[in-house]
Request: fold
Amino acid sequence: MQASDRFNINSQLEHLQAKYVGTGHADLNRYEWAVNIQRDSYASYVGHYPILAYFALAENESIGRERYNFMQKMLLPCGPPPEREDD
Reply:
């Protein structure tokens, strides 16, 4: 692998990270990563009707109620953020 290949790969990665929030970056902490994963999962559940219907059937709820519950869980999927330590 040449130096130009590494630079090209790094620039492509930086472009993806700037374009899509969920791809992460070097300063991403564990909480932010978990929030991105949970929100992506809930968005997928809401966006795919068959899996939404499956969850509704499994929890004995209506599909609309299940969609509403998933949308509410997207607000704080992992609870409140942890306290940050200022250096």
Notes: The chain has a mean pLDDT of 86. The CA atoms of residues 35 and 76 lie 8 Å apart. The helical segments are 3-19, 30-47, 49-59, 63-73.
